[in-house]
Amino acid sequence: MASPVVIDYYSDILCVWAWIAQRRNEELNAKLLGKIEWRYHYLDVFGDASNKIPNQWQEKEGFTGFSNHIQKAAAPYPDAPINTELWKSVRPKSSANPHLVLKGVELTLGAHVSIELALLFRQAFFIDGKDISHLAVLFGLIEKAGYKADEVKRSIDDGRAIAALMADYQQAKLLTLKGSPTYIIDNGRQVLYGNVGYRVLLANIEEQLKAPTNEASWC
To answer: Structural domains in the chain?
Structure first.
């Protein structure tokens, strides 16, 4: 059996476009069962949300304007419901804490659990309207999912989790990624960014699956 195509997936947990992309990622998994290896990474889009949003949207009603914007962005996508209170009464100060916890989960509970909990964190924010910038909320979600948070907390206490997160942030800058979500397919052969359609993603991945590893370059 051929090796799976590796997708380095960079996103910000608070990004509406990454939330919209979630359903497409699930469809890719279902269609290409066992042929994709996801590697989740995080980048800094809403690391300072409490200042970024009112500053960038000060001419457009601030948080209220941004809230209306994400509602409109998600409206065509029924699989990406949005809580009406997001960025109105629910205003996470930063995406850094959920990113930090997810890197801690990856280090202690495994990459697959981290991917699972990334979805749970997004659901808690976008559907349930929880402020996932609070560590207590995040650890509560971990425990509710049936996992122990103690090891994750230790990875934060001893610096391992923040080191892994900084590695993600620095790599995103080194690669000059434009934003969230970004798909880097097969070690950079394809880089797809933003609101990319399912068929475009599928076509690019299938092309990588078909291409022989020893294929000569035309250059």
So the answer is: 5-210 (3.40.30.10)
